[in-house]
Design goal:
Elements: H1 2-20, H2 28-31, E1 39-43, E2 46-49, E3 54-57, H3 60-63, H4 72-82, H5 96-108, E4 113-119, H6 122-140, E5 149-153, H7 162-166, H8 171-174, E6 185-187, H9 192-202, E7 206-211, E8 215-216, E9 222-223, H10 228-238, E10 242-246, E11 270-273, E12 285-290, H11 291-295, H12 317-332, H13 339-354, E13 361-365, E14 368-372, H14 382-392, E15 395-396, E16 403-406, H15 414-435, H16 438-442
Parallel strand pairs: 3-15, 5-6, 5-7, 7-10, 10-11
Antiparallel strand pairs: 1-2, 2-3, 4-12, 8-9, 11-12, 13-14, 14-16
Bound molecules: pyridoxal-5'-phosphate.
Pyridoxal-5'-phosphate binds near residues 126 and 218.
C-alpha cells in the first residue's frame, strides 16, 4: 500500500523539483539534466528511495546524523514533546527541554563553559559567537574597545551567512562576496610563525580567533598537525584574545571523542555546536560561553549591555527534546567508546585505498574521512562521477570537488562500514577508469 503510493508520486516529485526547487551548493543546470534520487524513508543508517532501494547514508545526511535514522529513543522523545508543545519562544519565556539540555551540555563541555545560547544552524551559532566576542570587548570599555578584529584559518569554513563567510577562507565559496565582508587576519593551520607575526603587529586589536578544531571539514578534511589547537589556545591567552572553537562538524563524537577540543585539553571561551547536536534530526544549534563573557553582558536595563540577538525558533522544544534523547543514546549505546574499533577498521581499510593508483592522498581523523583524487580537469567532475557510481552500488556520498568525503553515522555497523569503504574504492576505480577512457577525454 505504502509502496504503491511512493511509486505513484515519484515522477511528480521529480517534476515539481525541476520546476520549482533551487538546491543548496548545486549548479541547477546540471541538476535538471539528471533524474533526482527521491528519498522517501530511512531505516537505521540506510536511506530508502521511492522505489524501495536501500543506500548506506555515507555522509550522515550532510555530516549530522549520529545514531542512525528513526532511532526509537529519539523518535519517541520528539513525539512526546509534540504532544505537549511544538514551539514556544525563548524571548521572555522558558521551557523544560531548553533548560535541561543546557545543563546537560554544560556537564559535557570542556571546563569553563557555563552558558548556552541557542539558535538553529551552525552558521547562526558562529554569528552569535562572533557578535558576543565583539560586544564583550566593547563593553569592557577603555583600551579594550580597540579589540574589534578576528583571526581565522586559511581554508576555514564556518557557514554561509555573511559573518561566517567573513571568517571563512574557501575561495570557491567566498571570494565573490569579498566587498560585503569584514576584514580578518588569516593564517594557515600549523603556521606558528605567521600567527606570531599577526599577533605581534595586531595582538591588541584582536577580539577573538576562530578555528575548527583538529580537522577542517569543508576544506577537504584537512587534518591539523598535532598540538596546533593547544598552541593556538596558549597564544590567545598570551595576547588576551578570546578563542572561539567551531565544533559544528567535529562535535558529538565525530573525531573519536565527544568534542575535538578534549584531545588537546583545550577549553575555548566560546564553542559552537550544530549538526550532530540533535543526533542530526532537527535544526538546533548552540553557542556555549564562559561565565566571564556572560558576566560582561550583565548590567542595569538602562546600561544596554543586553545581547540584542535572538531568532524566532531559538531553542525550539522539539529540537531540544531530540538533543536530550540523543545524549541519552550516547550513554545507553556507549557510542563514543564503541567508535574505537570502527576507527581502527577505517584506518586499516584506508591504508589500502591510499595505495590505489587513482588516489593522491587519504586524510582522516576519527569518522571524518577524505580521499583526495588529486588534480584533475574540473570539467570532468570526477568527485561527482564517483558519487554516481557509489549510488549504483548502494551508498550515498557527496564529494567536496575531487575529494571523496566519507562521514557515516557513528552508529554504522562494522559490516556496513566495511561495505561503504569497499563501495567507495570500487566507485573510484570505475569513475576514474571511465573518465580517462579516450572518448571521454576527447569530449
Ligand atoms: C556545517 C558547518 C557549519 C555551518 O552549519 P550550518 O548548520 O550548515 O549553518 C559551520 N561550521 C562548520 C565547521 C561546519 O562544518
Amino acid at each position: 500500500m505504502i509502496r504503491d503510493h511512493a511509486e505513484s508520486i515519484a515522477p511528480t516529485v521529480a517534476q515539481l523539483d525541476h520546476d520549482h526547487l533551487w538546491h543548496p551548493f548545486t549548479q541547477q543546470r546540471g541538476w535538471v539534466d539528471e533524474q533526482p534520487l527521491v528519498i522517501s524513508a530511512a531505516a537505521g543508517t540506510d536511506l530508502i528511495d521511492s522505489e524501495g532501494n536501500h543506500y548506506i547514508d555515507g555522509v550522515a545526511s550532510l555530516w549530522c546524523n549520529v545514531h542512525g535514522h528513526r532511532h526509537p529513543t529519539i523518535d519517541a522523545a520528539i513525539r512526546d514533546q509534540l504532544d505537549r508543545v511544538a514551539h514556544s519562544t525563548m524571548l521572555g519565556l522558558t521551557h523544560g527541554p531548553a533548560a535541561e539540555l543546557a545543563a546537560r551540555l554544560i556537564e559535557l563541555a570542556p571546563p569553563g563553559l557555563s552558558r548556552v545560547f541557542y539558535s538553529e544552524s551552525g552558521s547562526s551559532a558562529v554569528e552569535i559567537a562572533l557578535k558576543l566576542a565583539y560586544q564583550y570587548w566593547q563593553q569592557c570599555g577603555g583600551q579594550h574597545r580597540r579589540r574589534t578584529g578576528f583571526i581565522c584559518l586559511g581554508d576555514g569554513y564556518h557557514g554561509d551567512t555573511l559573518g561566517a563567510v567573513s571568517v571563512g577562507g574557501i575561495e570557491l565559496f567566498h571570494s565573490v562576496y569579498e566587498p560585503l565582508l569584514f576584514q580578518t587576519h588569516r593564517v594557515a593551520a600549523g603556521d606558528l610563525v605567521g600567527l606570531d607575526r599577526i599577533l605581534d603587529l595586531h595582538g591588541e586589536d584582536i577580539a577573538a580567533m576562530i578555528v575548527e578544531p583538529l580537522v577542517q571539514g569543508a576544506a577537504g578534511i584537512k587534518v591539523h598537525p598535532p598540538g596546533w589547537l593547544a598552541t593556538v589556545r596558549k597564544r590567545c591567552d598570551a595576547h588576551a584574545i578570546l578563542l572561539i572553537v567551531d565544533e559544528v562538524a567535529t562535535g558529538f563524537g565525530r573525531t573519536g571523542t565527544m568534542f575535538a577540543c578534549e584531545q588537546e585539553r583545550v577549553s575555548p571561551d566560546l564553542m559552537c555546536l550544530g549538526k550532530g547536536l540533535t543526533g542530526g534530526y532537527l535544526p538546533l544549534a548552540a553557542t556555549l560561553a564562559s561565565e566571564r563573557i556572560y558576566a560582561g553582558f550583565l548590567g542595569e536595563h538602562t546600561d544596554f549591555r543586553t545581547f540584542f540577538h535572538g531568532h524566532t525558533f531559538t531553542g525550539n522544544p522539539l529540537g531540544c527534546a531530540a538533543a536530550i534523547a540523543s545524549l541519552d543514546v550516547f550513554k545507553s549505546e556507549q557510542t563514543v567508546l564503541r567508535l574505537e574499533a570502527k576507527i581502527e577498521l577505517v584506518e586499516r581499510r584506508l591504508a589500502d585505498i591510499a595505495a590505489m593508483p587513482e588516489v593522491a592522498e587519504v586524510r582522516s581523523r576519527g569518522m571524518m574521512i577524505g580521499i583526495d583524487l588529486g588534480e584533475h580537469d574540473q570539467a570532468l567532475r570526477l568527485g561527482h562521477r564517483v558519487s554516481l557510481e557509489a549510488r549504483r552500488r548502494g551508498a550515498i556520498i557527496r564529494p567536496l570537488g575531487d575529494v571523496i568525503v566519507l562521514m557515516p553515522p557513528l552508529a554504522i555497523s562494522h559490516s556496513d562500514l566495511d561495505r561503504l569503504l569497499t563501495i567507495t574504492a570500487a566507485s573510484i576505480e570505475a569513475a576514474v577508469g571511465a573518465a580517462s577512457a579516450p572518448t571521454l577525454v576527447a569530449a
